[in-house]
Amino acid sequence: MLILNLSLRDFEKKYISNFFGFVWVILDPLAFVVILYLVFGSRYGSTNPEAVPFVVYLITGYIAYDFFSQTLRSITFCISDHSFLLKKVNFRVAVLPIVTVFSHLMVHGIVLVICFVILLVNHIYPQLFWFQLIYYIVALSVLMISLGWLTSSIFLFFPDISNIVGIIIQAMFFLTPIFWNMQGLPLSNQLILKLNPIFYIVNGYRESLTNHQGFWTHPVLTLYFWTFCLIVLVAGVTVFKKLRPHFADVATS
Fold it and tell me: Closest Cα to residue 208, out of 137, 140, 143, 121?
């Protein structure tokens, strides 16, 4: 109940209390998709190598990456933004990254509805595989919470990590097949790019919504992703526990 209440309050603070904030929740990702479509659409033509309209290929990948990038930016500041709570003895600071993920999940739900409309307009109709999105959303949320415990803890002591996070987000955008396809690349290059854990999520969104393919058809990728998550989770929990006793002193100094 605490997590839900804090998530709703965080969502309201960011979007509802600001008249245009909620509008930009929808317009910002859609505007970027339109720009990418206009710039890169002519290169791929009206369809991509997977025989779906380019705008469908683009948006089904972009919404997954947008959830990752927006959440990672916010989650890095989640503890410092709630520094007034750090001196409350009974408050569990560890829930703050979870609250941030839940807040962004609400926004992501709105973007998903828009995506579904675009799919229907392009004659791509609901399938049981669409429910597989739940698995990928949970998988990405686990990764984001793990990263949140790591980056938000470090940020209090080393604010420059926010700049590092920004660079990583930009780099991963171009290393993830959002508006391009890996089929034309050498196999060795494809294997390297698949080491990017966000590839697993972006590809999973597309396979769920357009290709109707189960995640169990990629056992190696699935094992790699969850191994990566486990490593980040252990690192995040370890760093958080080690730095937690000093949060209040650093945040209020």
Answer: 137
- DSSP 8-state class, residue 184: G
Print the domain residue range for 193: 2-251
What's the pLDDT tens digit per position in 28-82?
766 776 776 666 555 544 545 557 888 888 889 999 999 999 999 999 998 888 8
CA 128, CA 52: separation in Å to the nearest integer?
Answer: 19
Number of domains within the chain: 1
Residue 11: CB partners within 8 Å, gap ≥ 6?
Answer: 103, 106, 107
SS3 229: helix
pLDDT of residue 13: 66
Q: Whole-angstrom Cα distance, residue 199 to residue 185?
A: 15
pLDDT in tens, 118-130: 899 888 999 999 9
Which helix (H) or strand (E) element contains residue 98?
A: helix 95-121
